[in-house]
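Lab notes, practical 5.
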Amino acid sequence: MIRLFATGGTIDVDHIAPDNSYCFERSFLPTMLEQSRCRAAVELQILFLKDSLNLTDADREAIVGACQDCEEERILVSHGTDSMAETARTLGAAGISKTIVLFGAAVPFIKPASDAGFNLGFALAAVQYLPAGVYVAMNGRFFPWNNVRKNRETGFFEKLQ
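Output from the prediction step:
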């Protein structure tokens, strides 16, 4: 069984408000799993649905606690890309001896050119085969928690060094 924690981010944006803030009504992850014909055993739990720029230390600690407390050894965390690397560092520093993979999307699932489905599928494959540790899986690449950053100019993740 794979635990999937939803925390929000662009992947689950329902619409963008006039003030350019993200609005969330529900998670699209169940639809994404169904549309992809996923046969892996995945248990979804929504922790919260927030723009990752608005995550607090308490939110990150809630993610850590959820990962520590769940019985599954393989965990996916859907997350906004803007602070994904920071949450990965928080999880990595916690020393949880499980395989934890964070993923998200640059384009909301509801948009035609979304990368959401690809990133979910890639993360789902990664969490089943990577050894214990914390990783970011985006755009066909994965990175360990202590060697990843989002390049704000390109919008892609890359190694720190």
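Observations recorded by the TA: The chain has four helices and ten strands. The radius of gyration is 14 Å.
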